[in-house]
Design brief:
Length: about 290
């Protein structure tokens, strides 16, 4: 099953129907290219990262890493349009993100925040269905097709049968997967994930990161675990001292020299004894005598 293509076809039919009823519905490109030019981001009145410039091709999986407080979440929120940049531009599919209408932006970028807490009185299926909002005509209600899309998204994140489960009865990991399902039905070409493995056990963490490689969309995620970023990302952006290193493949972005300078630990990339795939090993610095 290709959830993305099937979902898009259904939403296109809904959009056609809405246009027939006189509702203004925008079309959406599938391209997930993203360009950042001279971006500076602030949390409150404090600028936390400056001079960020990079270009991402459609379909890439990008990791953002850096010590605590270097602006990973702030940068993601700016890329999502949640925060306005202090200066610079975010260009998605050839358009400046912060000049888009809210509906257009919601059809372009979806974000799963690190500690988002949906209203406790909602059920899991209702939270997921919120991702369909950018495609509904004014005062539009969900259709049976859209209910099926919700069920399919929950199945994709291994939550089959959870649609009627109250959010307040979910574990932290289950709630995080519900929010990911909401982002999937939002069906944007660009998906932003802030610490997506937060609250997840190791099995679901690895499963989620593996799924990001099969979503047929551009994925940008902030990660604390350097080994996971090294394993699952095409390229990595390292934030350090208020700016960003060049966006490069993992062996360059997380070279032993960079990891030592930025994180103060030793790194060694060695082949896995069973698969042969390179793995990043992290060890603390030896204490100075």
């Amino acid at each position: 099953m290709n959830l993305r293509n099937d979902h898009r076809a259904r939403l296109d039919r809904r959009s056609d129907a809405a246009r027939g009823n006189g509702a203004a519905v925008e079309t959406r490109s599938d391209a997930g290219a993203l360009e950042v030019r001279g971006l500076a981001c602030a949390a409150g009145r404090r600028t936390v990262v400056t001079d960020v410039t990079f270009a991402i091709q459609a379909g890439e999986t990008i990791g953002i890493v850096g010590p605590n407080g270097t602006g990973k979440t702030t940068l993601l929120q700016t890329l999502a349009g949640v925060r306005r940049p202090v200066r610079g531009d975010v260009i998605a599919n050839g358009q400046v993100l912060h000049q888009m209408s809210a509906r257009r932006r919601a059809r372009t970028v979806a974000m799963v925040a690190q500690d988002e807490r949906p209203p406790a009185d909602l059920r899991a299926g209702e939270v997921v269905a919120l991702g369909l909002t950018p495609y509904l005509p004014p005062w539009g209600a969900g259709s049976p097709h859209e209910q099926q899309v919700v069920q399919e998204a929950l199945a994709t994140v291994d939550l089959t049968g959870f649609a009627d489960r109250p959010v307040h009865r979910l574990s932290g990991g289950e709630r995080q997967r519900v929010l990911l399902a909401r982002a999937l039905v939002q069906n944007t070409p660009i998906l932003l994930l802030d610490e997506p493995t937060n609250h997840l056990d190791i099995t679901h963490s690895l499963d989620l990161l593996a799924k990001t490689r099969t979503l047929n969309r551009t994925v940008i995620m902030a990660l604390h675990d350097l080994a996971l970023a090294d394993r699952y990302c095409d390229r990595i952006l390292v934030l350090h001292n208020g700016t960003a290193h060049p966006l490069t493949p993992p062996p360059d972005a997380l070279s032993p020299e960079v990891v030592d300078e930025v994180f103060g630990v030793h790194a060694l990339r060695i082949p896995h004894p069973k698969t042969g795939h390179p793995h990043l090993l992290i060890t603390p610095r030896e204490p100075t005598p």
